Amino acid sequence: QVRLVESGGGLVQAGGSLRVSCVVSGRDFTTYAMGWFRQGPGKEREFVAAITWSGGKTDYADFVKGRFTISRDKNAIYLQMNSLKPEDTAVYYCAASAKGLGYPYDYWGQGTQVTVSS
C-alpha cells in the first residue's frame, strides 16, 4: 500500500521559517518525481515544487523561487520554507508522479496545515 505522510506544519510569523516533511512507503519510488502542492483558503490547489527521486532535477513555482527549497533524503521529501508570507498559508500536500517531472501525480498525502501570521 502506497503511503505519503506529511508532517511539520504549524503556525509561524511572517518572515519566519518552517520545514514540512513527507515520508513515503509502499513502492519503489526511484523512478518517480515527488512534488509539493498547496491549497489556500478559498483557492485552488497549486503546484509549489518538485524533485526527481535522484535529486538531480528540481522545479519551482515562480512565487517560491529563492524562498523554498525541496530536497530528499532516503524515503523522506522535505520542503524548507523561508521568508514566509501570510499568503503562504495553506494546506501543503506531498505527491508522487510515476512518470516523472511534468506529468500528473498519482499518489497524494493527506496534507499538513501551514499558517503564517502577519
What does this structure look like?
This protein has no helices and eleven strands. The strands form two sheets. Strands 2, 4, 5, 6, 9, 10 and 11 form a seven-stranded mixed sheet that branches. Strands 1-3-8-7 form a four-stranded antiparallel sheet, with no helix packed on it. The protein has strands spanning 3-7, 10-13, 18-25, 33-39, 46-52, 58-60, 68-73, 76-81, 90-97, 107-108, 112-117. It is mainly beta.
SS field, number of helical segments: 0
Radius of gyration: 13 Å
Give the overall average pLDDT.
96
Main β-sheet description: 7 strands, mixed
Please mark out the parts with pLDDT under 50 across 5 or more consecutive residues, or reply none: none
Helix content percent band: under 10%
Could you outline the blueprint of secondary structure elements for this entry?
Blueprint: E1 3-7, E2 10-13, E3 18-25, E4 33-39, E5 46-52, E6 58-60, E7 68-73, E8 76-81, E9 90-97, E10 107-108, E11 112-117
Parallel strand pairs: 2-11
Antiparallel strand pairs: 1-3, 3-8, 4-5, 4-9, 5-6, 7-8, 9-10, 9-11
